[in-house]
Amino acid sequence: METNWSRNKIDRIYLVGKIGIMLFIPIALFLIPINYLDNAPTICLIKNISGYECFGCGMTHAIISTFNGNFEKAFLYNWKIIIILPLLAIIWGKQLIKLIKAL
Questions:
Q1: CA 45, CA 64: separation in Å to the nearest integer?
Q2: By the 8 A CB rule, do 80 and 95 touch?
């Protein structure tokens, strides 16, 4: 039989783990060298099947370039980064605040 105390402790550990992962993601993106991605094959299903780039092609490269401070290269990978990254940051921040308040 599980007590309330142990359930609360499990929930707290789960929340701390989620917060840790959310804080690790931007650090990991900063540490990925953009040169590594330049030589990697694309995983875009649309591009692999049709040969044409989709609206999101280059977005991962653009985000990592932005995290590394190379805004011009990020814009060249996918110009929609100027819209997507701020929205992504707002959603990420709101979710992080929500998790911290739940502690």
A1: 20
A2: no
Q: Are the CB atoms for 96 and 22 separated by under 8 Å?
A: yes
Distance, in Å, from the CA atom of 63 to the CA atom of 89, rounded to the nearest integer, reads 11
What burial letters (b/e) apply to 77-96, b meaning 16+ CB within 10 Å?
Answer: bbeebeeebeeeeeeeeeee
Per domain, the residue ranges of the chain are 4-102
pLDDT in tens, 54-100: 888 889 889 988 988 889 999 999 999 999 999 999 999 999 999 89
CB 99 within 8 A of CB 18: yes
